[in-house]
Amino acid sequence: MPSSSSSAPSAARPPLPKAELHLHIEGTLEPELAFALAARNGVTLPYATEDELRRAYSFSDLQSFLDLYYALMAVLRTEDDFADLAHAYLARAKEQGVRHAEIFFDPQAHTARGVPLGTVIGGLSRALDAAQETYGITTRLIMCFLRDESAASALETFEAARPYLDRITAVGLDSAEVGHPPSKFREVYALAREAGLKCVAHAGEEGPPAYVWEALDVLGVDRIDHGVRALEDERLVARLVADRIPLTVCPLSNVRLRVIDDLAAHPLPAMLDAGLLVTVNSDDPAYFGGYAHDNFTAVRDALGLDDAALRTLARNSFEASFLDEATRAAYLAEVDAYQGEADAH
Ligand code: ADE
Ligand code: ZN
């Protein structure tokens, strides 16, 4: 079931084809599935009903969200749980016009609870391996390090993941940003690059532009996740434009986590005008009121983005992806051939 504030696009007017590049699989855990998994695993949630849980989705900042996000993960225990979670996301993503999804997961949030890494990756892989055939969606997996854990813990996690690196496209960095600069993770990112992985990092969500500089210059990232605060530094914007570094912006998330006061004041149009390779994504859609296409329609309505701007955002999503060139070209051709209004919903 869609969350109350997300509107499923109609089948008659399929939504604009797009790639989702900033999506935490644990952030797709809808209340219905959380309660079903709690029952299956004998876990007691501190909420009596789904509605009571939904009422807790009122956040004052990133940390207030993370507290609930990590608490609800208690229901994810078995390989089937992770596979069911990913299947539920993919079914929704298909409805939203997502043709390609690069999906984050937080291994330390599970191994710290005694869930083996192989259980997490095994369950997610089972769903992702079926994604193309079942949903017509290509996928990649991005393993994130929790930046509020130690650099040693990130290194340990990376070493534990070595047997599974063929299933992982990139490493990422998430969780509480302020006080945990990217440079803390220099060593593990160097190992990831040596192993041939792509690199991304959350930066400039709550943290300052200096964290975006560090993600670029110390970690050597290929993409910045969020990056909305980059606009505070003109030199940084020039660098991001010159190097065509994509920014995976998450508009509904920014409003729910109070990074931005109001969607109508979102810097997305300024980012597009500056020539940044910006994309629109959903972050933790079960918590923030909408999946990929819901974010597109929300920015269209709040910011008055026209058909051409929405098509640019859809094109950017494939340009910014880690797809091979032939598949990227095929998806870009789908965007160009898209018949409906780009803002169909
Ligand atoms: N983990 C899940 N969502 C996140 C976000 N928006 N920022 C940082 N870490 C996260
Ligand atoms: Zn995120």
What does this structure look like?
With 345 residues, the protein is an alpha/beta fold. It has one domain (18-328): TIM Barrel (Alpha-Beta Barrel), CATH 3.20.20.140. It has 17 helices and 8 strands. It has helices at residues 31-41, 50-55, 62-72, 79-95, 107-111, 117-129, 131-135, 151-161, 186-194, 209-217, 234-242, 251-256, 268-273, 285-288, 292-303, 307-319, 325-337; strands at 18-24, 98-105, 138-146, 170-174, 198-203, 223-226, 247-249, 278-280. It has an 8-stranded parallel beta sheet. The longest helix is centred in the first third of the chain and has 17 residues, at 79-95. It is globular, with a radius of gyration of 19 Å. The relative contact order is 0.15. The protein binds adenine and zinc ion. Zinc ion (ZN) binds next to strand 1. Adenine binds at residues 24, 27, 62, 69, 174-175, 202, 205, 253, 283-284. The active site is at residue 205. The record marks 226 as: Important for catalytic activity.
Name the structural class.
Answer: alpha/beta
Radius of gyration: 19 Å
Number of extended strands: 8
H/E element sequence: EHHHHEHHHEHEHEHEHEHHEHHHH
CATH superfamily: Metal-dependent hydrolases
Active site: 205
Pfam families: A_deaminase
Site (Important for catalytic activity): 226
Keywords: Hydrolase, Metal-binding, Nucleotide metabolism, Zinc
